[in-house]
Task: inverse folding
């Protein structure tokens, strides 16, 4: 079975990953992948917003490194992308980034559920203990629905990232899952199966079987991503992810070129 494209990979420019694009591409070739995509964390409009992403002035260097990987591995299809933080109010900045380079896709991710709290940050774990998980999950999925409706993104990243540290809601989350997934379907945006969840406390692919089942029923398209922060994580657990997709009824996934979607058999 050939593995799907790995569309979620980081580079050292985000300050918490190791392995240059050429090294990640070499690993992809070794694994027999035919397509990958670099999707490092986008610069923010203010470089001091946080400390886990490239600075605005480094965006050109990022594009250059991806170009070098393309030249080094012409047999591998390498997509140029970003993982873009969605925060309400950032829309014009995201549009500006979109105009700068010939991106293949944007992954829209919600890490911030307030201006200053990234819910997946291990450095801000204490914040979870001060909060009500039901409220956090509701805010998170509301932002995810806004991200889907914004038309700024091709793919929504790790759609239940809020489970990372195992702070689960008490109320049934299916209505908030459905509100987001219906927004995704209406907007024609894909969701990714992200295997990084298997390497975190939650020990589960993002998103859960429950979410993926609803997504499958609605016909929301999917992509795959390892969220690699090191060469050894490229394509990690992809056969598990394909199985996860099949169990939810998926027989197809998608790929992107210059922000146009194409369907491929799984
Ligand atoms: Zn992310
Ligand atoms: Zn990521």
Result:
């Amino acid at each position: 079975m050939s593995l799907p494209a790995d569309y979620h990979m980081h580079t050292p420019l985000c300050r918490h990953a190791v392995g240059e694009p050429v090294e990640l591409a070499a690993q992809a070739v070794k694994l027999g992948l035919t397509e990958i995509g670099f999707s490092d964390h986008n610069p923010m409009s203010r470089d001091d917003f946080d400390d886990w992403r490239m600075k605005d002035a480094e965006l050109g260097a990022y594009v250059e490194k991806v170009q070098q990987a393309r030249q080094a591995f012409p047999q591998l299809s390498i997509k140029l992308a970003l993982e873009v933080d969605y925060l309400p109010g950032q829309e014009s900045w995201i549009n500006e980034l979109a105009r700068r380079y010939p991106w293949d896709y944007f992954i829209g991710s919600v890490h911030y559920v307030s201006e200053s709290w990234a819910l997946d940050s291990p450095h801000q774990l204490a914040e979870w203990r001060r909060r009500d998980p039901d409220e956090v999950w509701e805010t998170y999925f509301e932002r995810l629905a806004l991200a889907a409706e914004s038309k700024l993104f091709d793919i929504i990243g790790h759609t239940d990232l809020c489970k990372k540290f195992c702070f689960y809601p008490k109320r049934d989350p299916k209505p908030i899952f459905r509100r987001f997934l219906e927004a995704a379907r209406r907007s024609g945006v894909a969701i990714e199966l992200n295997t990084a969840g298997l390497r975190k406390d939650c020990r589960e692919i993002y998103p859960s079987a429950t979410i993926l089942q609803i997504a499958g029923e609605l016909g929301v398209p999917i992509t795959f991503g390892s969220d690699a922060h090191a060469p050894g994580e490229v394509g990690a657990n992809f056969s598990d992810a394909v199985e996860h997709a099949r169990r939810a009824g998926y027989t197809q996934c998608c790929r992107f070129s210059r922000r146009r979607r194409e369907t491929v058999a799984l």
